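Quick start: load a record and inspect it. Here is Heme exporter protein B:
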Amino acid sequence: MKVLSPDTLPSLGSAFFGVLKRDLSLAYRRRSDIFNPLIFFLIIIALFPLGVSPERKVLAELAPGVVWVAALLACLLSMDSLFRSDYDDGTLEHLLLAPQPLYLLVMAKVLSHWLITGLPITLFAPLLALMLYLPLDAVMPLVYSMLLGSMVLSYVGAIGAALTVGLRRGGILISLIVLPLYTPVLIFGAGAVTSAASSHEYAGHLAILGALLAGSVTLAPFAIAGALRISVEG
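Running the structure step on this input writes:
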C-alpha cells in the first residue's frame, strides 16, 4: 500500500481544485451547459398545469412529485456531456495517466457538474414549486431534499456517463443504466416534500437521502474511475 507523504498533499489539493476550476471555466464559456437543464426544468413545470389541471388543489397535491421528476430529468439531460468533451479532445487520457488518484479527479468533475446543474436547479426549485401552489411549510424541506438528492443524482449519473463515454450515442444507454438507480432518490426526495406539505414528520426521508449521499460520495468515485478505465482502455 502506497503511503502519501506530507509533500504530496498539496499536489492532491491543487489537482482537485485545478480540475474543478477548469470545468467551471469551460462551463462559463459554454453557457448552454448551464442554461439548458434550467430551461428544460422550467418548461416541464410550466407545461404541467396545461396538460393536467390548473386547479390549485390538484397542483398542490402533485407539486412534490412533479418538481422532483423534472429535476431528475433535467439532471439526466446533462449527464452525457460530463466526460464527452474530455474524451473527444484527449483530456480524459491525460487524467487516466495523471500521478494523482483518478477517483480524486473524478470527484472534482462530479462536484463541478453539481455546481453547474444541481445547485441552480435546487435554487430555482422553490420558486417553481410555489407556481404549483406548494404549501410554504414544504418549501424548506424541498430545498433540503434537493440539496442532498441532486448530489446523489450527479454521482450516480456519472457512473452511467463513464460507462458510455466511448459510445457515439450513449444518451439512451445512460437513461437505461441510471434511471433504476435514481428511483430511491426520487421516492424519498418527493416523499420528504409530500410529508412536509401534509404536516407530517419528514426527517426520516432526509436521513435516508443523507445515507444515500454518504454512500455515493464513498463508493461512486471508485466505480466511475473503473468505468472510465474500461471505456477508454478497452
